[in-house]
Amino acid sequence: MLSKIEAKYIQSLYHKKQRDELSLFIVEGLKGVDELLNSSFVVQKIFAVNDWEHPLMGKAQLTRVSEEELQKISGLQTANKVLAIAEQQNFIAQKPQKGRITLALDGIQDPGNMGTLIRIADWFGIHTILASEDSVEAYNPKVIQSTMGSFIRVKVGYGNLANLLTDVGIPIFGALLEGDSVYNQATIQEGVLLIGNESKGIHKELLTFISSPVHIPRIGGAESLNAAVAAGILLSHLIKK
Fold first, then answer.
1. Which terminus of the chain is more exposed, N or C, with fewer CB under 10 A?
2. 1: which residues sit within 8 A by CB, 6+ positions away?
3. What is the separation of C-alpha 14 from the centre of its chain, rounded to a whole number of angstroms?
4. Whether the Cβ atoms of residue 50 and residue 97 lie closer than 8 Å to each other
5. Residue 241 in this model has a pLDDT that exceeds 70
6. Is 40 exposed, middle or buried (0-12, 13-18, 19+ CB in 10 A)?
């Protein structure tokens, strides 16, 4: 049974201010909660319908709710059996390391894009993302949902990208409309791929840090590519198989 106080508390976690104050976040659905329970994240509470079961559901306080109650506290158009509240793991942004590939995001605003970028990083084995301070928060429920569980394996650190990219000693690739074709670029074992804002691209003050501007040659008539789509294409050609 879900109390009105609990419902109001859960609904408050859809607001960034409350998430920040409590250092909590929401995960919904079978896939996301399964990944969460099998991770190092501390799960505080689970709200699930009667037919939801999980071998690790004893890791947190479990409240059984009806489908109607779950829908009331869900951020999804159609609730999917289970919702969990977990403690955030705050990752301190550090300069990119040599011998690794890092994804840097400059002003990504759309939660769906951010979530997909985290998922793409996970696909290519990238464990660290550096994001500018004006990028959307990684614990936004829509971001978490879009990652399809990849938020477990990819750490997102926020900071001043100009400071983080100064004197890193490894190549910095920038996704630009002009530059070398990524199809002619040799694969890499270390470096940073910098992806810009969905509409404005990479901020001018960061352009000087780019040592290797790359672009995806256009064949058709589209003016631009979605930031996450562009990152996926670039990484598929840059990363050594």
1. C
2. 63, 64, 65
3. 16
4. no
5. no
6. exposed
Question: Contact, 136 vs 110, CB < 8 A?
Answer: yes
pLDDT digits (tens, 9 = 90+) for 92-117: 999 999 999 999 999 999 999 999 99
Task: Give the Cβ contact number of residue 5 at 10 Å.
Answer: 8
Element at 144 (helix H, strand E)? helix 141-147
Interval 168-209: pLDDT, tens: 999 999 999 888 999 999 999 999 999 999 888 999 999 999
Taking only the tens place, the pLDDT of each residue in 1-41 is 789 999 999 999 999 999 999 999 999 999 999 999 999 99
* pTM for this predicted structure: 0.94
For residue 68, give Cα distances in angstroms to 45, 49, 80.
18, 10, 11
String of DSSP letters for 51-74: T---TTGGGSEEEE--HHHHHHH-
DSSP β-ladder status, 212-215 and 172-181: parallel
Task: Dig out the tokens for 54 from the structure.
Answer: 């999980």
